[in-house]
Design goal:
Blueprint lengths: L2 H24 L13 E5 L10 E6 L1 H15 L4 H11 L12 H9 L6 E2 L2 E2 L6 E2 L4 E2 L8 H17 L15 E3 L6 E6 L4 E6 H4 L8 E2 H12 L10 H33 L3 H30 L5 H7 L5 H13 L2 E8 L2 E8 L2 E9 L2 E5 L3 H9 L69
Parallel strand pairs: 7-11
Antiparallel strand pairs: 1-2, 3-6, 4-5, 8-9, 9-10, 11-12, 12-13, 13-14
Helix pairs in contact: 2-5, 3-4, 5-8, 8-9
């Protein structure tokens, strides 16, 4: 080993030891020097005459903290990290580091950093070998974001990353990532035609001549979208108590997303370097995820108990005008695992609505008139409470069509009378024999066949 190489190695070791000493000192509340989040200012002792002064504590720079809060709010309003960075640069907001302005990566680092909660997690190593050391340290920094906002943003960024959504249309497309072509399952995209530049939804493959699907008028499809909202758990869009439950659910799902992300990283560390400590972290995270999943089911049941009974009042309070309101409605349906396919024959446009790959609703639109059909207990109950069906018309047919791939000839799923039926419990549907326990007692709702519910 050459002398220069040895000196470099020794220097690296000394720096590593000094850094670990700082991390250990931080556990007793001692500042780590000039290294700090960008929204904090270091405070020094005026009586300290040493050449390298060490800060006594940190204080929040409110101007910079407000920038961080704006980043989180824009994220919750439906804007992706690229758009958030662009908006900050357009406003002339100075970046915390560098002179080139804000970028998507710097926005992403702030959104994912637990330091906004006042939490510091020590690490050791670099790159792929960087692993957490010990428990997170609380109290070293002052929190500037509450936990509900932080974890709701984690949920929003996780969903947005899966969809790879970076474009910002002038008016958010409420059908984004929800609507597919019935014939080929390609996405339906916006386009304009005619002198009036009327907007339509057109199959991506049809635009290339590879699908025969007809274009669908956007304004009429958005009326169908509004109708769909009344048939699922969307009361949180307009009602404060339901909104509170939805906020709790978003926070919970954000916590789950963070735990899953951390567990994935730790599993990668384990593959590279087996460690009992990291194995324990993975096990703890797995147990915590299971506990949170149970709590999520409870919150989803509480949300499902709230029903839309007055559609006119719901529509009056529903915000589908602002970019943020349209984005919230879209993300709610995505969270409910809703997928819709559409096709047009002559003047009739048919929308097939699926929840977790099971068909729950068929909506037919003809010249602005909307007709609905369903075999879903939940949707049937919603229609009952909204005065769209009478008690004597309530039924559950037992036939539920599963989402099929193009050219798949699979028949509708029908519970058989002589064999165990499919496991419907994973789709969180009510019992096959009743629409819901909250239907008035004087009405008895039964199946239209005698086959067992499986």
């Amino acid at each position: 080993m050459s002398r220069s190489h040895r000196e470099s190695h020794h220097k690296s070791v000394r720096v590593g030891i000094a850094w670990r000493n700082k991390q250990e000192a931080a556990r007793s509340g001692k500042p780590m020097g000039a290294t700090k989040p960008g929204w904090l200012d270091a405070v020094y002792d005026d009586n300290d005459k040493s050449l390298k002064k060490k800060p006594t504590h940190y204080v929040v720079n409110e101007a910079k903290a407000n920038i961080v809060r704006d980043i989180f709010q824009m994220t919750l309003d439906g804007y992706g990290r690229n758009i958030v960075a662009r908006k900050l640069n357009e406003r002339g907001t100075p970046a915390f580091r560098g002179k080139t302005g804000w970028g998507a990566s710097s926005v992403d680092q702030i959104l994912k950093s637990p330091t906004v909660l006042g939490i510091y997690q020590p690490y050791r190593g670099k790159g792929k070998e960087r692993v957490p050391v010990g428990e997170p340290i609380t109290g070293l920094y002052a929190p500037i974001i509450d936990e509900t906002t932080f974890y709701a943003a984690q949920k929003a960024t996780t969903d947005r990353f899966r969809a790879r959504s970076t474009k910002q249309p002038p008016r958010f497309n409420v059908w984004s990532k929800l609507l597919k072509c019935t014939h080929c399952r390609a996405a339906l995209n916006l386009y304009s035609k005619g002198k009036e530049q009327r907007k339509y939804l057109r199959c991506y493959e049809a635009a290339k001549g590879r699908c025969q699907a007809k274009a669908i008028r956007l304004d009429r499809s958005e009326e169908v979208f509004k109708e769909l909202l009344t048939k699922v758990n969307s009361l949180s869009l307009v009602q404060s108590d339901a909104r509170s439950l939805q906020a709790q659910l978003n926070e919970l799902e954000g916590r789950i997303a963070v735990l899953q992300r951390d567990m994935t990283e730790n599993l990668e560390f384990l593959r590279a370097r087996p460690s009992p400590a990291i194995r324990a972290l993975v096990a703890d995270a797995d147990d915590e995820i299971a506990r949170l999943e149970e709590k999520r089911v409870e919150l989803e049941k509480a949300l499902a108990a709230d029903r839309i009974t007055d559609k006119a009042d719901f529509f009056a309070r529903l915000d589908l005008e602002s970019y943020e309101g349209r984005s919230r409605a879209n993300e709610l349906l995505q969270r409910l695992s809703i997928l819709v396919t559409a096709s047009k024959v002559d003047i009739v446009t048919t929308y097939l609505v699926y929840k977790k790959e099971l068909e729950i609703l068929t909506i037919k639109e003809t010249d602005g008139n909307i007709h609905k059909e369903t075999d879903s207990p939940d949707v049937m109950t919603a229609m009952f409470y909204q005065g769209e069906v009478k008690a004597e018309d309530l039924f559950v047919s037992g036939r539920r069509r599963k989402l099929r791939k193009p050219n798949d000839t699979t028949q509708p799923v029908t519970p058989a009378s002589t064999a165990p039926g499919p496991d419907w419990s994973q789709y969180e549907e009510p019992d096959w024999y009743t629409v819901t326990n909250s239907v008035p007692d004087e009405y008895t709702v039964t199946r239209d066949d005698e086959s067992p519910a499986g």
